[in-house]
Design goal:
Strand order of the largest sheet: 1-2
Number of helices: 4
Distance between the termini: 36 Å
Number of strands: 8
Order of helices and strands: EEHEHEHEEEEH
Shape: globular
Structural class: alpha+beta
Radius of gyration: 16 Å
Length: 136
């Protein structure tokens, strides 16, 4: 979203990257590396978990980042299968904009019904379970 050949965080930190169209390309690109980082994994194809297993079995450290749920709160892309085969899982939480609790949901403020709608603060708010579902 911010750069063609780099991964850029919301606070403008960046590292060089290689965009790919299918997870199988990781097998070719990772042959001479020690670490493979995959960002936005929820948008990858369903073969990503198998690719990660193959790369890890070669002794390469594989680090994957992505959303585990879409804006409707349902499992997103290959993430559930990645979680099942991961050796270590670190869940990172945002801060709920309504109450300040740890936020595990992405509440969509835009009216689009498309599953994928790229955006930041203008389209999404981080919310905790209570505020996401309106439980009071």
């Amino acid at each position: 979203r911010y750069g063609e050949n780099e991964i850029v965080s919301h606070n403008s930190n960046s590292i060089p990257s290689t965009p790919i169209s299918h997870s199988s390309a990781i097998l070719l690109l990772s042959s001479a590396t020690k670490v493979v980082g995959i960002d936005e994994a929820q948008f990858f194809d369903e073969e990503l978990p198998n690719v990660c297993i193959q790369v890890a079995n070669r002794g390469v450290r594989v680090i994957v980042a992505g959303l585990d749920m879409d804006y409707k709160g349902t499992p997103f892309g290959p993430i559930p299968n990645l979680l099942a085969v991961a050796e270590h899982i670190t869940k990172v939480y945002a801060v709920c904009v309504q109450c300040g609790a740890p936020a595990t949901f992405s509440y969509r403020t835009a009216t689009s019904e498309e599953r994928v709608l790229l955006g930041e603060k203008e389209n999404y708010e981080p919310r905790c379970r209570r505020c996401y579902f309106g439980l009071y």
